[in-house]
Protein 1
Amino acid sequence: MATEVSTNVQHEHPPRPYFKILIILAVITAIEVTTSELGIPAYGAAIIAWLLIVMALIKAVTIIAFYMHIKYEKSPLKVFSITFVIPFLMSFLVAFFPLVG
Amino acid sequence: MNEDTQDHSNEGHHDHISMMSPFIGLSFGLVGFSLLSFAQNNLVMGLGMAALFIIVLAVFVVHEIRQRKAAWDERQIALKDQSHSATFMGKKMWMWIFLISEVVFFTILIGISFSLRLVNDPSLGFQDVARFCGIPTNTKLFNIGDFPKGWVDSEGKTPREILNIWVTTINTFILIVSSYTMVKAHEQAEHKNFLGQKDGKDLFFKLGAGKLLLVTAAIGAIFLGVQIYEYTLLITRDHFTLGSGLFGATFYLQTGFHGAHVLGGIILLLLMAYKTFSNGMEDASDIELAGLYWHFIDVVWVMLFTIVYLI
């Protein structure tokens, strides 16, 4: 029967660190909120804003890599660039068009 | 889920002209006009456009159901001839293409709101950001001009004075946990443990994929509940609405669209759970696709949380 044909999904793989990722995401979120609430002395609003955006990007990439299993795809970087990086960068340019008009 | 991948492989298959694109375009237009009308306190126009949207939606749904039902039987025949692997890879590719469109949608939505904010917020000027990046700011390219308003609502309050960060922080944790239960559901589905094992080695094995899907949907519903609570407080107590300046408009547009996606995700998860409990699951592929969508919602929220609430 058709369903018996082996699929490209890896059924047998070593346990993946899902719980660790959950903890990492929670910790980064806590750091983000603390940074945002207390601020960092000697750093201006713009630098803190950039720090927060970088932390958010790290969280986003972590979720994409581990929870969306891109890290375990055959060619992770290719899938990641085609589905996220390229569309993101192209739309980003459109979104920031008002700034450079 | 999407079965369109087998379209061209079957000679006997008739290509149906999909009305999806024009309907979606029209719907977005109507929703946009409706929101704009509400924002300008034009209730009649807003309600009219909303009603028109519902009619268009109904026509669309009936049309699609009819068309899909006709196509369904043909596809069932075609499906039997194909290996399951090819079907799944096709389905997954379509999910990725859908997610690409979602990346574009949310990047533009959040990006435009953010760029408007950079232009408008005196405390986080684009000049600062540009200087931080090493871009010379005295050129005409980055001369932003004199916008009349700062990044405040129509009563002159800043985001920090209006938004409750602590409620949203809890909501962020809630959504992250839902992503975890989702990925665990997928893991159990990979082990073919759909209905749970009483003597399972841990909680997740005891629950099984179906119940974990329900748990994920429930956590998603809690997230939505908290968001509705937040909206209610903002509207009734703080009188912060869609019409409260650029800030109000972009805030409700971003979080509202995200909330709508969460609602869609919950419905998808419930459908998957139903399919699991009615023994309709043969492998983990459908749950994996639902998971991709659910995690994507989480990714969007991670960015939204930082850009809307924290900065």
Protein 2
Amino acid sequence: MSVQLSDELVSLLHDRETIKLLATTDESGTPHVVAKDSIHIAEDGTIHYLEHLESSRTNHNLVRAIWFDRRVSIVIIGTHQSFQIKGRPLEVHITGPLFQKHYAEVRHRLGDVDLSGVWVIEPLEVINENPEIRRQEEEKRRPFFRHLDRLAKPLKGI
Amino acid sequence: MSLALAGTLHAALSLNEIVAKYPDIPRLIIIKTDVQRRGIHYTERALSIVDPAIHQIRSPYLFGSRDGAIKPLPESLLLRDGTTIFVDPTPLEQNPYQVDLVEGRLALVDNGEVVEFVRLWEKPLYYDQKTSSGIPMSHIASARPQRLNIFQSSYCHFWAEQKGCRFCDIVNHNKQQKHELGVPVRLKPEDVSETIREALKEPGRFTNICLTAGSVLKGKDLFDHEVDYYIETLLAIGENFATKKFPSELISSAFNEKQLIRLYEQTGIMSYTSDLEVLNEEKFNWICPGKADTLGYNEWKKRLIRAVDIFGKGNVGTGLVGGVELAKPYGFGSEDEALEATFEEAESLAVNGVTTFFIVWVPRPGSDFRGQQNPSLEYFVRLASGLHQIRAKYRLSIDFNDYRRCGNHPDTDLSRLL
């Protein structure tokens, strides 16, 4: 089921300094992770990714994902925050107004480049990857997962 | 009960059963194939949201539709993976899929259940323009989601000798098209050039140009006039490009080496297709009497193979009308037999660099085979899978005729990942 992205995450997605990684898997399940500036959030809350190359590994893996109901992962890294979004490709626009709008925009911005498709990804789960938040969550939910020395009384005289 | 309905009701496996049986074949491609096999019917609710200012309404085409009528209905559909469904309106008594409005979106519906949501094709801007000679540009170039079709001549000389291919309705349909819409039977190069120029003004709209027409037998050598006409049209198209070559496909008669060299060297054409239609000499002789009498099956094959030396491996193909090999009364007796024969021949072509693809056979009312039933969904799924596997085995590219640059072949949809 689709989840709504928090305002914090939305503003991070809008920030041009944010690092955005897209992870997909190939036929054998091998991950393929690449940095993708063109990931952005659409008005309806879905994530759009502009794929420039028809024959790229990412594009092929996204086709596999939409064909065989596989998931993808998007990692968003800001200066002080980091999130992971698990999602599934819902649709790819290879023609039509949305495609042509982005086609014109990327060519205006980047020069003589092409556009293969505009992938629409539905966010299914968001994980806050901030290490301190993740540590606190684990210690609360899984209290056994700690080394004992971390809980030991400090030794006197040492 | 019509033949078509009887065939559907007695089909061995349903769509869902086929999807479950073939987990390596994408459900969306199986749906596309079945929709092409059975056709569609637009409900009034669906038609209520069609806007001719935005959506592409059926434009001139080389072949007629399954209902034998020319009506202002939507051109066709797109699936959410970008796959094109090139499909005809079909009479309700033939049990087509319904295109209905569900929760404000268009959906393919079967037996009351939503199978998949779909989109309509958007109309290109040039469709609203006319050439300097006053012809609607939509009559000069027909658009697909990413391709321009130029049907430069809609007469096939095989028909003059009563030897047209038995599945084909080209001449009957084009008489109807000329009478009802005023579509020119033969295009003038200057009209084609002007239309292409207008189409290219829309950024991101097209990736390929396809030229095709009926066979022209006249000339010093067989087909010389057909070649001359293609060269004239291609040169007119080429006026609009800064590069000599542009992504394009020619679907024509089987030309000799001299003719192919002229085409390749003088024009911007990048790929060559000549349709054998059915991969078996005996069935070819029955189904394609004109082609059989003028060149014959083996010479047609040889010319395809020779074309690879000129156009390059992966740039030469042959099209099949998939399923016609099972037509009554002289087709194969079983689907297994038909597939075995087809794959054997497709492999013999692939070894030599020629790739094979198919369209789903639709028994059209204007053809000799009207009233017949096309094969089961499972047959088409196995045919698509087999031809794709042969292409993969011999590392044959299908970039000139894939899901985007054509969209009418379930097997080349599968080859999207090659």
